[in-house]
UniProtKB/TrEMBL annotation:
Catalytic activity, EC: 3.6.1.-
Domain CP-type G: 121-303
UniProt KW keywords: Cytoplasm, GTP-binding, Hydrolase, Metal-binding, Nucleotide-binding, Ribosome biogenesis, RNA-binding, rRNA-binding, Zinc
EngC GTPase domain residues: 129-301
Superkingdom as given in the UniProt entry: Bacteria
Pfam family, one: RsgA_GTPase
Protein name: Small ribosomal subunit biogenesis GTPase RsgA
InterPro entries per UniProt: G_CP_dom (IPR030378), P-loop_NTPase (IPR027417), Ribosome_biogen_GTPase_RsgA (IPR004881), RsgA_GTPase_dom (IPR010914)
Annotated segments matching region Disordered: 1-23
Cofactor note: Binds 1 zinc ion per subunit.
Described function: One of several proteins that assist in the late maturation steps of the functional core of the 30S ribosomal subunit. Helps release RbfA from mature subunits. May play a role in the assembly of ribosomal proteins into the subunit. Circularly permuted GTPase that catalyzes slow GTP hydrolysis, GTPase activity is stimulated by the 30S ribosomal subunit.
Subcellular location: Cytoplasm
Cofactor(s) demanded: Zn(2+)
Native source species: Frankia umida
Amino acid sequence: MSSRRASSQFPPPAATNASSAGVPGAELRRYGWTATDETRFAPRRAAGLIPARILRRDRDRCDLVTERGMSNARIGLTRASDAHLTPCTGDWAALSTAADPTIVELLTRHSALVRSSASGRSEGQVLAANIDIVLVVATLSTEPDLGRVERLLTLAWESGARPLIVLTKADLLVDGSHAATVAVALDAVTAAAPGVDILTVSAFDGTGLAALRDELAAGAVADPTGSGPTPGEAVLGGRSAVLVGPSGVGKSTLVNALLGEEKLAVGRVRPQDGKGRHTTVRRELVPLPSGGILIDTPGLRGIGVWDVDSGLDATFAEITELAADCRYGDCEHRTEPGCAVLAAIEDGTLPERRLASYRRLLRENAWLQSRRDARLAAELLRPWKKIELEQRRLYADRARRERR
Ligand SMILES: Nc1nc2c(ncn2[C@@H]2O[C@H](COP(=O)(O)OP(=O)(O)OP(=O)(O)O)[C@@H](O)[C@H]2O)c(=O)[nH]1
Ligand SMILES: [Zn+2]
């Protein structure tokens, strides 16, 4: 994964206020922890573990937040080799509170944004876990890359979270020279995203920011203590949202606009690692003063789809729907008679570009799946290869003995 953007783009977290810590996990509610989560966690708490949300993943350690404040912990999972089970930003974990805190368990994820790994290996790579919304960010300032929007939507649908398209730089609408382009861009994106809500925003003039804040704050509750660790941070919980989109569309500017004043209230944090080390906790996940939790992962360029069968169905919903009316169940919508998809292209209701884009992503998905299947097959064969080898050795030994 490219790290074109420092993962510490969010301001260092302010020192945690322990005053609301009367209730177990209360401080974590800012990060989305709920009473239900706490109930489920009870047996672990009884075993001396505490809940934590992962803010950032390093090779074998994580920056995280617990009810006691920011911390840094070792990854002590037994199945750490499984890409889907290694901690990532957004994960909830059970943490041992030993001298060197250790993540001993990942709590079940309700969603995960997964891409094919940058190295092109046959595994998926989890970019963010436990998200409610994927903000697919594109800009109105240039002709939209619809293929990219569809790719990101496919990943978003597949994650189990709800996609929301955010079109940035809406202030360009008022500029006469841009207005026409923007209107066309908006129509094109709408056609490429059936069933997906689209918000146009501008970090410059504030357009749409209130609507976006409301989306993220849904379900948030007022801080019972009346004040958060930083002034104005009086809302707890809300939706967890991850931002995806190419470089230059205005993600950082948008994040800063959403963070508002909070970015000024910064300070170094001393993780409670028992050794009193002073390190700055870096984070890719931050609670918003207005409610909701924002995740911004570095480097989402060249993002590849990964195991996205249902994501494709959702992204290209109108094609899936048409395909149900094709004469043949296995219709590939190429030359088959009675093909409802081709008929829709013929009568102009389905743009050819949509079908081409759908095919491209289908092919990519099938290719990755076949590579994964090949890897699985190789893994299944491995024990047999070992037995075969041992048998050969045995026979050779016996033959040698008999020759003597
Ligand atoms: N007109 C206008 N320009 C904007 C707006 N938001 C951002 N920009 C400009 O767009 C450019 C890119 O913004 P960034 O926030 O750095 O974009 P990004 O998506 O974070 O880019 P990376 O950090 O490379 O991923 C900058 O020159 C911003 O000033 C906006 O609302 N309106
Ligand atoms: Zn067909």
